[in-house]
Amino acid sequence: MPDAQDTQPSRAHVVLRQIFTGSAIISVLAVFMAVVVGAVLIAVTDEQVQEAAGYFFSRPSDMLVAVWDAVSGAYSSLFQGAVYNFRRPGFENGIKPLLETLTFATPLIVAGLGVALAFRVGMFNIGGRGQMLIAAACAGWVGFSLQLPAGLHLILAVLAGVLGGAVWGGIAGVLKARTGAHEVIVTIMLNYVAFYLVAYLLRTPGALQAPGQNNPKTAAMESTAVFPKLFGDRYALHLGFVLVVIVTIAVWWLLERSSLGFRFRAVGENPHASKIAGINVNRMYLYAMVLSGALVGLAGVAQVLGTVTTGFGADIDAGIGFDAITVALLGRSKPWGVFFAGILFGGFKAGGFAMQAAEGIPIDIVLVVQSVIVLFIAAPPLVRAVFRLPPPGADIAARADTAKVGAL
């Protein structure tokens, strides 16, 4: 009989099996499949492709060339608008799209971290829009109404925004902990409350509306309350991105290394068992929503103190509160996964505009790609079936079977 040690799979085989049965590969393949779907849509909607399709059977090569030109041109523009533009002279000009991507990614990452933290505790924070609006209103009011020294003014504005988001998220946490109200319903309703509250304040002189103006818009932020540009006024990337990197590290440490993070994960896995083990589940729900709201609120702060510093309206959230859900899903609710997912979606935003301008491709194609990513992320068995990947746990089962055979 063969020895059990001899029948064990090699280390390389085990590593490869873990890679292809893990969640990371599903995210990568989901993005790949979404890009393929986007390519099909680009080809179908292209006028040259449609024209060549009319005489496909007489000259099929024309249609294939038209498809290649449409798809390659679109994705080339997407790359050049998101990463590096080879058409611009000089490195300092060519790298500008990457810095635009990081600028778009800044609020997406931190809002995604907020949603991901709630996910890890078993809660669904759908209230990103409301938390961003309240945070933007708080940070913006401090930013344009107070006259303070440069460093102090910026710190106070950031803290005001984070506190506003934390309070707005904490409302859902309190209702969940005290009454059992479902956080999805509560956070959705709070989105509407925040929107109409901020819209009212923007139309009220002496509140958020700029003095002497009839439009529902705030005054410009004071220069002392604006995130400094990291590489000068030539580029849009600001200090908020560095803050987001620090926050990502802090959230990773909180979830993976701290005792509070352990309790968060335990409640997320099984709240009933956690309660039996002595964890105050309701308190964890409250803490999680407060921290989640604070993180999403920081995205609103990045918008008003970094991106839109000339005054903002009720649309300052720019859909980021809902895009953050997709970012958290693609990042598998892991801090660094969310970080890179946010950069990917920032690239989609930056490159999508370039693709539309250069090739005339509707920006809606990018939105479709993002939506398809969510679809495939939500259906891992579909991705595994398409690429014929082994199911999760297959490696463990195979090793167990091998051990049994070796023991006979």
Automatic annotation (TrEMBL):
Keyword Membrane attached: yes
Membrane topology: Multi-pass membrane protein
Localization per Swiss-Prot or TrEMBL: Cell membrane
Presence of the UniProt keyword Repeat in the record: no
Keywords of the record: Cell membrane, Membrane, Transmembrane, Transmembrane helix
InterPro entries tied to this protein: ABC_transp_permease (IPR001851)
Spans through the membrane: 20-44, 65-86, 98-119, 131-148, 154-175, 184-202, 235-255, 284-305, 337-355, 361-383
Record's protein name: ABC transporter permease
